[in-house]
Amino acid sequence: MTEINKLASFIDSLHYHEKNAPEIDLKKGCFPFVTISRQAGAGGNALAVALEGKIQTLHADPLFQGWQLCGQQLCQMIGQDPALKAVVESLLRTEYHSQAEDMLSQLIYGGSSQDLVVKKMFHVMRAFALHGKVIFVGRGSTLLTRDLPLGIHVRLEASMESRIQRMMPEFGPDEKNVRRVIEEKDKAKAVLVKTFFHKNVQDPLLYDVQFNTDRVSIEEVADLLIAMICRKASGNS
User: Fold this and answer.
1) How many domains does the chain have?
2) What are phi and psi of 38, to 5 degrees?
3) Considering the domain boundaries, does residue 4 fall inside one?
């Protein structure tokens, strides 16, 4: 089963839950969930995969059954809507342009406003968070769900040197080029958060916990998040 098919199956399960379970408390939600905010190259995707793997080893516990990783797959699924497909490739790179650039792009190339895509994505993400048992990677998920008490919000940062090393396998050995890619990605993340939530993505008060992945391994962070999920579920957050 592809990641998109898994995500579609997860959405189907949400629809079933809504029809066959008591009404969801819109101020609290049902189960814990995790949002991962990160500097480019700090290990956000690696953490999501590591956490998902640890959750799968705990599947005998009902708390850890039915979890879903939600990152690029959500953008790809939304991109299957022909009316929205034109801007999904840039969203997959977490790029966000100014409104003036977006208007110019529509005039030249046609297609949908990226704001429409982002807002549709936010709507789906919010529904996922209310159900819980989701690992979100970026895309404004922290700010979108901060009011829900079962959320666990983590921020990853690291030195530029280690971030460049992590990104080289994907973007090549040219250190100057990789540095430029990192700076562009970080800027795009900051613009998205500022545009839609009027916040500074680097504000430490937005997160429950922050890690320097130069000093704390991805595996250690994943273990700590498992413990935090258990505490959230027991009401001892």
Assistant:
1) 1
2) -155, 150
3) no
